[in-house]
From TrEMBL:
It comes from Seohaeicola saemankumensis. Residues 86-195, 219-333 form the Plastocyanin-like domain. CDD domains: CuRO_1_2dMco_1 (cd13860), CuRO_D2_2dMcoN_like (cd04202). This is Multicopper oxidase family protein. Coiled coil: none annotated. It holds the Pfam family Cu-oxidase_3. Keywords: Copper, Metal-binding, Oxidoreductase.
Length: 452
């Protein structure tokens, strides 16, 4: 029987049912159904009703691939194909992905399972899937030409292996890899522990770090870009449209972050300290864990960290490289801070009356500006909070810790109301005269007795 439990999932930001397509029924009789997702909304997977208990992962703006049981083997069907992915409202990218989306659906199984994964290639060129971090037979490793012949367009290959260890793994092509990964082909592979008492959590979030270089007004990523990407994404999604991480106070929370970009990302979460509990190599023993507030996710690696959600609030979670929390920005813009543009502005306005000088006092005005943008792009810095513009983009979201959130409820609870006395406020009393040292050579902190 086809296991439909995941098909009932309702998203945090609206429900989109998994639909299915048939792929040449005569030729592919006996293949598991290839589920298809047409929405970028987070799909919540219900808890398992048979087998070992585990908390299903929540892939932000993603979904878990349904499977069926066939004589004790868990069967999945991935379809590599061109997809249209909404990176944010107002911006769609033409990517390559799996089963209708980039990133591909999350595969979830349990330690000890045997899995059989059918991979149908609907791309215009050959592909493979490498199962990053999984311990498996050499011929199942998915390196085109090395492990097995690459899968030609229109063909289906079968991968089959035992899941001998639990943890967080990834999948991606290992054939024309540079192009296919730049086009968005990647996903996560979660193996839950067979023992439900091994490091259980109440909430388990999943973020795949990826990146695209898409010129404003265009749809297809520039595949030759190596470092100057202009869209830094989580699960092929950018702020302000990455879903929040909704948590009930007191929950034990795990966040698993994989990095298949070409640079490292220090993921910083406010309000908490936490410890790395797992890498794509396996679980970190408790004696080897140390506290952090930013965790660097190396290229081609995964880090999972855990914390207990004791602190109520809206807590930013973001990459600490400040260029990675911007959208669609150019890197060749000159710096104008401190430049007097009055004369220049007067001259330009004589033939272009609506000209606006920008950047002379920083770039914060970009966060509120309503500039005319080309089709199919998003502002560089954007997003509104309860107290004004957030001035972020790219790899940014919010951890929302509240009281009274029901188990498995991930609906956005809105903005946090700071209790009285717990919010920074304006000083409205007298301001003292500021003493400044005028000597340009000695602009150091003045001694208490020095006079300007
Ligand atoms: Cu980053």
């Amino acid at each position: 029987m086809f296991n439909r439990r995941q098909l009932l999932g309702a998203g945090a930001a609206g429900a989109a049912l998994v639909s299915s397509r048939s792929w040449g029924q005569t030729a592919n009789m006996g293949l598991p159904e290839a589920a298809f997702m047409d929405s970028a909304a987070t799909q919540i997977t219900p808890r398992p009703t048979s087998g070992p208990d585990y908390t299903p992962v929540v892939t932000l703006n993603g979904w878990t691939l349904p499977h069926r049981m066939n004589n004790g083997v868990k069967e999945f069907h991935l379809v590599a194909e061109p997809v249209e992915r909404e990176l944010a409202e107002g911006m769609v990218a033409h990517l390559w992905g799996y089963n209708g989306q980039s990133t591909g659906p999350t595969i979830e199984a349990v330690e000890g399972d045997r899995v059989r994964i059918f991979v149908t290639n609907k791309l215009p060129e050959h592909t493979t899937i490498h199962w990053h971090g999984l311990i498996l037979p050499s011929g199942m490793d998915g390196v085109g030409g090395l492990s097995h012949p690459a899968i030609p367009p229109g063909k289906t290959y079968v991968y089959e292996f035992d899941l001998i260890k639990s943890g967080t793994f990834m999948y991606h092509p290992h054939a024309d890899e540079m192009v296919q990964m730049a086009m968005g082909m990647m996903g996560m592979f979660i193996v839950h522990p067979k023992d439900p008492t091994f490091r259980p959590v109440d909430r388990d979030f999943l973020i795949m770090l990826n990146a695209f270089d898409i010129d404003p007004g265009t749809y297809v990523p520039r595949i030759m870009t190596m470092t100057d990407f202009n869209l830094w994404t989580w699960n092929s999604r950018i702020f302000p449209d990455i879903d929040p991480l909704v948590v009930n106070k007191g929950d034990r929370v795990r966040v698993r972050v994989g990095n298949l970009t070409m640079t490292n990302h220090p993921i910083h979460m406010h309000g908490y300290d936490f410890k790395v509990t797992c890498t794509d190599g396996g679980w970190v023993p408790e004696s080897a864990q140390w506290p952090e507030v930013s965790i660097d996710i190396p290229v081609g690696a995964m880090r999972a960290y855990e914390f207990t959600a004791d602190h109520l609030g809206d807590w930013a979670i973001h990459c600490h490289k400040s260029h990675h929390t911007m959208n669609a920005m150019g890197h060749d813009v000159p710096t104008f801070i401190g430049v007097n543009k009055a004369e220049l502005t007067r001259k330009i306005r004589s033939f272009q009356p609506e000209y606006m000088p920008m950047g002379t006092a920083g770039m914060a005005d970009m966060g509120t500006m309503e500039m005319e943008l080309p089709d199919n792009t998003v502002p560089m810095m954007t997003g509104w909070g309860p107290h004004g513009p957030i001035e972020m983009g790219g790899m940014f979201s919010v951890v929302k810790v509240r009281e009274g959130i029901a188990p498995d409820d991930y609906a956005d609870p809105g903005w946090y109301q700071n209790p009285p006395g717990e919010q920074a406020y304006e000083w409205t009393g007298e301001l003292p005269e500021f003493t400044r040292v005028n000597d340009a050579r000695t602009r150091l902190t003045p001694k208490p007795d020095s006079k300007g």
